[in-house]
C-alpha cells in the first residue's frame, strides 16, 4: 500500500458535495478513493491554443458565406443545391475534426 504523506483540504459547494457523495455511493468507495479514481482514470485534454479558436471563427465565417450563396441560389437558381449541400457537409466535417483534435 502506498504511503499517504500529504493532506489536502478542499472546499465544495453543496451541489459538488452531493455529486461526490453520489459518485462514492455508486462506486462503493470512500470519498477520498473516489477522488483518487477520478484523478488516475480520467482523461484530460489540454486547453486548445489560440489558433484553434481563430480557425473555428474562420470556419464559421465561411459558413455564413455559404449560407448567403444558398440564398442567392434559391432566388436565382444559378448554383446547384447538391454542390452547396456538399460544401456544407465538408465544412461540418472540417469543423468536427478540429473539435476532436483540440477538445
Q: Can you characterise this structure?
A:
The chain is an all-alpha fold. The protein has two domains: 12-44; 50-102. It has four helices and no strands. The protein has helices at 14-27, 31-41, 50-76, 81-102. Helix 1 packs across helix 2.
Write the layout of secondary structure elements.
Layout lengths: L13 H14 L3 H11 L8 H27 L4 H22 L1
Explain briefly what this protein structure is.
This protein is mostly helical and 103 residues long.
Descriptive key words:
single chain; 103 residues; mainly alpha; 2 domains; 4 helices; 72% helix; 0% strand; elongated
What is the succession of H and E elements?
Answer: HHHH
Work out the helix count.
4
The quaternary structure here is single chain
Which segments are poorly predicted (pLDDT under 50) over 5 or more consecutive residues? none
Main pleated sheet: none
Strand content: under 5%
Cα gyration radius (Å): 24 Å
| Mean pLDDT metric | 85
Helix content: over 70%
The geometry reads as elongated
Secondary structure category:
mainly alpha
Number of domains: 2
End-to-end distance, in Å?
A: 35 Å
Number of strands: 0
